Amino acid sequence: MKIVVVGPGAMGCLLAGMLAKSGNMVWLLDKNEKRAENIRNNGINIEGKTQLHIKVNITTNATDIGKADLIIIAVKSYDTIPASERLSAIADGSVYILTLQNGVGNVENIKRVLNNPNVLGGVTSYGATLLGDGVVRHAGTGDTYVGRLDGKLTNEIQRIAEAFGNAGIITKVSDNIEGLLWSKLIINVGINALTAITHLNNGRLVEFEGTRDIMEKAVNEAVLVAQKKGIKLIYDRPFEKVKEVCALTSANISSMLQDVLKKRKTEIDYINGIIAEEARTFNIPVPINEALTGLVKTIESSYDKFLFSTN
Ligand code: PAF
Predict the structure, then answer these.
(1) What is the mean pLDDT of residues 261-273?
(2) Ligand 1, from 202, 206, 219: best to mutate by most atoms within 8 Å of Cβ?
(3) Mean pLDDT score, 214-220
């Protein structure tokens, strides 16, 4: 398959490297020429659970790529709309587009910008940390699911899942992708903002009564919003599942804490922020998610502004 991966972050490089290694023709699309040049010269280097060095095609101009079979969107959720706009020359209705991003609302945004009906949602338990341009530590594996929001199963989706499987990324086709996206969202609601605020890794969040209590309340608020929306979550006991993920990924520095440590914009608007936004339409109070959103936004706006000096 000819596959374009948009965004050479941790997940983007991991997927591009593994899919190229299994024989697909892979292009990376970047927005940053300097980084693209580094990756063009040095290739993708993966360490940890996968060990791989491979050269891939990379460009900052979508027209260099031409027609592809599949475009994978792996940018941060706040970059989905500009990234989709950059794809307009190569993303007509005959191309499948798959988002494997955190948060919800990305499928809808890509569909709207590109007017393409073949946009698939996906969730993955793969975890990766970016160590430098094109350099990634593959930290965790697990199942990946892909599917359409309307639940329709097609041969093309099966072919995409097979291409992932051939690359060693075990992938299942789901007819409840919205339920999976919301179930993953609820895990991020419970973990990401709390780690970004406390600087604890995932495992330590459940050791303290204070963080455990806030986590439970944030998760319960999000579950209520999901129920109001008629979403079929895949876990019977979501808070227990969030605690289980904390244990399974105990050493992880969550993606949001990684962003805060690097003083980058976070995905808070697409995680706890989306819960607060959706709750307003149903008139449900979600004070914990509102507070977590407000605190992470305050951290983002106060990068480089020191409140006090120790001198
Ligand atoms: O965003 C993340 O870091 C991950 O989705 C998760 C599951 C919280 C593990 O760190």
Answers:
(1) 96
(2) 202
(3) 98
The residue whose C-alpha atom lies closest to atom 4 belonging to ligand 1 is 254
The finding on whether 245 has its CB within 6 A of some atom of ligand 1 is yes
Residue-range domains of the chain with CATH: 2-175 (3.40.50.720), 178-305 (1.10.1040.10)
> Residue 9 Cα, ligand 1 centroid: separation in angstroms?
15
Determine the average pLDDT of the residues in 253-281: 95
Query: What are 77-127's pLDDT values in tens digits?
Result: 999 999 999 999 999 888 999 999 999 999 999 999 999 999 999 999 888
Helix axes 272-282, 209-228, angle to 10 degrees: 50
Residue with CA nearest ligand 1 atom 6: 254
CA of 254 to the centre of ligand 1 (A): 5
Mean pLDDT of 179-195: 97
| Residue 217 a catalytic site member | no
Mean pLDDT, the chain, rounded, equals 95
